Amino acid sequence: MIRFDRKVVFPLLVCALLGCRPYIDPSLRPYVGSQRDVKLFLSKSVEEQIEIYLKVAELPGHPADYYWGAVIATSDGDIGRILESHLRNEKDRDRVSDLILLSGKYCALNEKCKGEDFLDAAAGAAAQPLPANYRDLVNQSLDWIAKGVARN
Fold first, then answer.
1. What does the alpha-carbon distance between residue 46 and residue 38 come to, in Å, rounded to a whole number?
2. DSSP secondary structure code for residue 23 in this structure
3. For residue 40, how many other CB atoms are within 10 A of its CB?
4. What is the C-alpha to C-alpha distance for residues 115 and 51, in angstroms, rounded to an integer?
5. How far apart are CA 142 and CA 96, in angstroms?
6. Average of pLDDT values for 46-58?
7. What is the 3-state secondary structure (H, E, C) of 68-112?
């Protein structure tokens, strides 16, 4: 039988648990978990909101298509040109896929997307160089963009 000394095991366990927690930038804390501050988030410019969305999406356990995407898509009016600019200028494929997911939410939830062919073109062009596993992730959003742009 193996005996464990509590004076040794307990401190080791505590250190291991505390040391394994993912680091979260203190500036992002108001935007993750159950204490999300919607009022603070909406006080930011659309550009800042998108950057927060992208940074939170990079955190472990926070999929790109999370809470803030719907908030941005529905709270900021016509953001098609801003999204287009981000899609055309972003090079990191994780951020590109996150931006396509955000654009899909925008077109699915916001009537302002109607007729914004430029956004559909930018999302399609941004998706082209993505590897197959990323394309699988963004295909639904690309459909939402196309349908939102063509909305009758």
1. 13
2. P
3. 11
4. 25
5. 12
6. 94
7. HHHHHHHHCCCCHHHHHHHHHHCCCHHHHHHHHHHHHHHHHHCHH
Task: Measure the CA–CA gap between 107 and 79, rounded to whole angstroms.
Answer: 10
Q: Is 120 exposed, middle or buried (0-12, 13-18, 19+ CB in 10 A)?
A: buried
Q: Quick one: DSSP state of residue 45?
A: -
Angle at 110 between CA 109 and CA 113, to 5 degrees: 120
**Phi-psi label, residue 104: left if phi above 0, alpha if psi -120 to 50, beta otherwise:** alpha
Say how far residue 138 (Cα) sits from the centre of its chain.
12
Contacts of 102 (CB under 8 A, 6+ apart): 50, 53, 64, 69, 72, 73, 83
| Cβ-based neighbours of 135, under 8 Å, separated by 6 or more | 127
pTM: 0.82
Q: Is residue 141 predicted with pLDDT exceeding 70? A: yes
Cβ distance 71 to 42 under 8 Å?
yes
Q: Which tops the pLDDT comparison, 70 or 67?
A: 70
Distance CA 10, CA 141 (A): 47
